[in-house]
Amino acid sequence: MKNKIYLDGNKTKYKGNLHLHTTWSDGSLPAEQVVVAFKEKGYHFICLSDHEIYTRTDEFNTADFITIPGMERGGLNPIPDKDPGYHFGVLDDPTVEPERERFGHLQSFPTPIPWEGEHSPQLLIDEMRSHGNLVVFNHPEWHLTRFDDVVKYDRYFAIEIYNHATEWSTSSSYGAAYWDHALQNGKRVFGIAADDSHAHDRNWKIPEYGGGWVQVQSDTLTHAEIVKNLKMGHFYSSSGPEIYDLRVEDGQLTIECSPCKFIMFKAFPLRGPFIGNYENGEPMSLASMSIEEDMQYVRVECIDFEGNVAWSNPVFVADLLQGGE
Ligand SMILES: [Zn+2]
Ligand SMILES: [Zn+2]
């Protein structure tokens, strides 16, 4: 089995929120104030992903903070406003040469989108991609998305596995079961935690800003490097804990993280260990397991004493075998 480093404790990681709203759609703060709020919280990048309106705001970019162009595209329901429907995160991908023109700043899109049958979500995903974007399946749990949708539709890059706004407001925010369903059916897709924040007051005791994020390993903080590393899966998602290092050496998958209550190796179809110091309650920051060739994938969840989670991206076992990637 090959050795592979997924996250390197010696390399820089940049913190980002890929899903939020401003007054360009239904958010409470204008973009300039959103940028200030996330800078104050120690973020390095955000996507101003307003509903049906694309943002491209290079004017906010500095040496230590950037905005990734994008939007949230929705309004696609078999029965308007009744069926669960689809919201997709749309992120500008500068690492590809698009077939069609890239979207411009404040370019707006009509909603609802007419439903033309089951292929409609795929048409929308492909259309967004043809303009040079990555596509994310947003908040599946909150939307009551059908599990099969994450298998039936293709060419999306990630599933939103934690959506803080829907946890903050309705406690229905965890999409990791959808992710496992996609992975178990052979999809190579990543998981993303994000805020989806709309409202913010810096005096609020329970803030909507800063509840879910990604940490992207990258040599530099540029739009192209961040997106390149997102596409390679060189990142993890979190609502609290940190993952410092994740690697396979001599068939052992080892994770180093901030002090946690549980470290869970979610391997499929052969189960991995779920580890906790049940007797003494001592926090853990290191764990490992042996990978077996019959495993399809392994992903790791680190859960802290407040119940917050860090999610690694999947280790696809086929990549580690001879002839693999
Ligand atoms: Zn949405
Ligand atoms: Zn949203």
Would you mind describing this structure in some detail?
It comes from Cohnella silvisoli. With 325 residues, the chain is an alpha+beta fold. It folds into two domains: 228 residues, Metal-dependent hydrolases (TIM Barrel, Alpha-Beta Barrel); 86 residues, Immunoglobulin-like (Sandwich), CATH 2.60.40. Strands 2, 3, 4, 10, 11, 14, 15, 17, 18 and 19 form a ten-stranded mixed β-sheet that branches. It binds zinc ion (2 copies). The site of one zinc ion has 4 residues, from loops.
Task: Describe what is shown at a glance.
The protein is α+β, with helices and mostly antiparallel strands and 325 residues long.
Q: What is the CATH superfamily of the largest domain?
A: Metal-dependent hydrolases
Domain count, please report it.
2
Q: What is the tally of beta strands?
A: 19
Question: In percent terms, what proportion of residues is strand?
Answer: 25-35%
Q: From the 3D structure, determine the CATH topology of the largest domain.
A: TIM Barrel
- Name the poorly predicted regions: none
List the ions, cofactors and other small molecules found in this model: zinc ion
Distance from N terminus to C terminus (CA atoms, Å) equals 12 Å
Helical percentage: 10-25%
- The residue-averaged pLDDT reads 95
Instruction: Write down the Rg.
Output: 19 Å
Helix tally? 6
